[in-house]
Amino acid sequence: MFQDNPLLAQLKQQLRDNIPKKEGVVRGSDRGFGFLETDNRESYFIPPMQMKKVMHGDRITALIRTENEKEQAEPDTLITPFLSRFVGRIKIIKDRLNVVPDHPVLKEVLKARPIKGLDEKLFKEGDWVIANLKRHALNDGSHFAEINEHITSGDDPEAPWWVVLRRHDLPRQAPEENEAWQEEADELPREDLTSLPFITIDGASTKDMDDALYVESHAEGWKLIVAIADPTAYVAPGSALDLEAAKRAFTVYLPGRNIPMIPRTLSDELCSLVEGEARHTLCCELVIRADGSLATDFRFFAATICSQGRLIYDEVSDLLEQGKSESFNPSATILEQLKALKAITEARHEWRSKNALVFGDKPDYNFELDEEGAVVAIHAEPRRIANRMVEEAMIAANVCAGEFLSRTPGYGIFNVHPGFDPEKLAGAMELLTNHNAPIADERINTLEGFCELRRWMDALPSPFLDSRIRRYQTYSVMSAKPGAHFGLGLPAYATWTSPIRKYGDMVNHRIIKALIAGKECPAEPAAELTQKLSESRRLNRFAERDIADWLYVRFLAPSIASGTIYPAEIIDIVRGGMKVRLLDNGAVAFIPAGQIFSDRKRLECSWDDGKIYLDKEARFELGQQINVKLKDAIEATRSLVATLAEPLDVRTQEESIEELEQEVREAQANGQPETLADDEI
Predict the structure, then answer these.
(1) Euclidean distance between CA atoms 673 and 213, whole angstroms
(2) Torsion angle in degrees (nearest 10) through CA of 43, 49, 53, 54
């Protein structure tokens, strides 16, 4: 009798309207329940039955009900589903296709069917696919997915590469080749510099050599010519190849392979600055003073050069650092070039450390793979002198391009880093004030103030504050208009030194070449292009990291049984534990709170403080180095789980006081001040 009763329906709606609602993001767990986390960091429990309506990562509104004096969230409205296009694996249940999303938290088995044109018989248990979520349980009562693409079989040894590339919608192959490549006719005046002893310095396996260097003494210090390969001589603006390069945006570098932005014949042969081969280049001539500063009278010009030495990083570094190299014995001319470049590097590094900013010398981690794609070894390669020589030369050349394009025409492709996120600026200033930073006001949002702050932090004995303050900084972006690069401490920075592998550098080449030729400049790059470049760079980094995580799990799994101890650095602290980076190989592992200390009630992992407390005493902090052992390597989620190499030293309060008193007595006996630092009390 109450069916279709409008008064009853109205009453139900009124009751529902009076129930508090919250908007937030669903955070799932591997035990069926979840939490609704609001933007202001409130958290509400979602029971298992209600979690069946939603997925981890969904943004929803939920009704907040109180049961047994405890608040619970009941999903009500879907705002943004977490899944749209996703990678998954096929699961066959009763001869019907299902797909399981490839995500560390999502465990849902979704009913699925292939799109028209895909044969259902093509799919086997465990196959990797691309799918789209078509129906969501909160709206339609159940989840349903549509399979759009078969990536590869479940047992394919190359699955990590194919899966990651398709996850980020990156190309799997190089662009198509042209049968007969020809240089575009241009009217650029080109200087003949083929007699000068230009050299290239690259990795042993590098084929796309896009920069060559020549240096000579100058009255003020040194004259350096940076010569860069010129692929725009082959790639006409608006051509099919140009459109493809713009779409790719970058060469994708992954462990064991790369997918070039332009065809390999161009990148590895015709444009590559091969030793003994004449090549058309775009050059910048600049003067570096003896103190490392750049003179203002640099110039850009077109030239033909011929590399007289294809040098390798490690061999050059061995020679310059150790005085000899078993496999490298350069001519007197090339040796003179190398010594001059080393002097320039030392001068520029010193100048930038005092007047701009320099990055810390952290090693690169490189995978050595066999023919099957299995990891043979992981090499930690420090930034040696040869790497730094090329790096300093490229930075100097890009500084010149930044200034050149800022003046005329006032646009190009600039790397811009704004420093602190405006929405997090107040939090950054509060943090710095609490740590007695010499600058902790609005000046940190200026280039000069940011540089002053960074130089002060770089001199601190601990990386703790540096690790914390980075949470308040923003990412660098590509911009058509000049802007400061706070990360480098420079007023403008425009890269043009890697046009073989970066489309933005090709754009800058075309603008610079037009200015040299006295022609009308290409139009200002559209916002869509700069956004595309920024997003592509981000996706490429994600892809490289995802492949690395996969290979780390496979390579390090055997070390679990051996109990190998690894030195590690704490890189993040979250509510459930901490992330560490293994210093020997660069792998990232997670240490759950339960592996830190068994009594979870006595342990507090504070993201806000960047510390982990046991019985209110800080025991770990960001940037701290500790020893760990691997406990699990989970290939399904590409994750490593670690534990402390040694159990936490747990002391009673009485023991701590006794130890502190002993420290005071020893300090008195040694004539040292009695007062201890606040964090020691």
Answers:
(1) 56
(2) 40
Question: Of 62, 81, 61, 60, which Cα lies nearest the Cα of 72?
Answer: 62
Whether the predicted pLDDT of 667 surpasses 70: no
- For residue 86, what are the CA distances in angstroms to 89, 106, 115, 151, 161? 10, 12, 15, 12, 16
Amino acid 597 reads: F
Strands 110-114 and 144-152, by their bridges, are parallel
C-alpha to C-alpha distances, 363 to 381, 382, 386, 498, 640, nearest whole angstrom: 5, 4, 14, 22, 21
Cα-based angle 253, 257, 260 (whole degrees, multiple of 5) = 55
Integer Rg of the chain from CA? 29
Nearest-angstrom CA–CA distance, 406 and 482: 6
- Can you give the pTM of this predicted structure? 0.88
- What's the pLDDT at 654? 47
pLDDT of 245 above 50: yes
DSSP element (H, E) containing 625:
strand 625-634
Residues taking part in catalysis: 202, 208, 210-211, 313, 501
| Number of Cβ atoms within 10 Å of the Cβ of 679 | 8
Using CA atoms, how far apart are residues 353 and 372, in angstroms rounded to an integer?
44
Residue type, 304: T
Q: How far is it, in rounded angstroms, from Cα 390 to Cα 268?
A: 19
397 vs 669, more confident: 397
User: Tens digits of per-residue pLDDT, 512-523?
Assistant: 999 999 999 999
Q: Which residue has the tokens 């429990």?
A: 45
Nearest-angstrom CA–CA distance, 471 and 488: 18
Backbone φ and ψ of 14, nearest 5°: -65, -45
| Surface-to-core class of residue 47, CB atoms within 10 Å of its CB (0-12 exposed, 13-18 middle, 19+ buried) | middle
**Average pLDDT in the chain:** 91
Spatial distance between the Cα atoms of 260 and 264, rounded to a whole number of angstroms: 7
Q: Kindly list the distances between the CA atom of residue 575 and the CA atoms of 373, 442, 589, 603, in Å, as whole numbers in the listed order.
A: 36, 31, 15, 10
Model confidence pLDDT, tens digit, residues 451-500: 999 999 999 999 999 999 999 999 999 999 999 999 999 999 999 999 99
What b/e readout covers 638-659, taking b as 16+ CB neighbours within 10 angstroms?
Answer: bbbbbbbeeeeeeeeeeeeeee
* Residue 25 β-bridge partners: 37, 59
What are the tokens at 629? Answer: 């052992």
Relative to beta strand 59-67, strand 70-80 is antiparallel
Q: What domains are there in the chain, each with its CATH number?
A: 6-80 (2.40.50.140), 85-156 (2.40.50.640), 190-417+482-547 (no CATH), 425-474 (no CATH), 563-650 (2.40.50.140), 652-681 (no CATH)
Q: Collect all residues with Cβ–Cβ distance below 8 Å to 421 and sequence separation of at least 6.
A: 472, 473, 474
Distance CA 567, CA 274 (A): 41
CA distance readout (Å), 252 to 88, 173, 235, 551, 565? 23, 10, 19, 17, 34
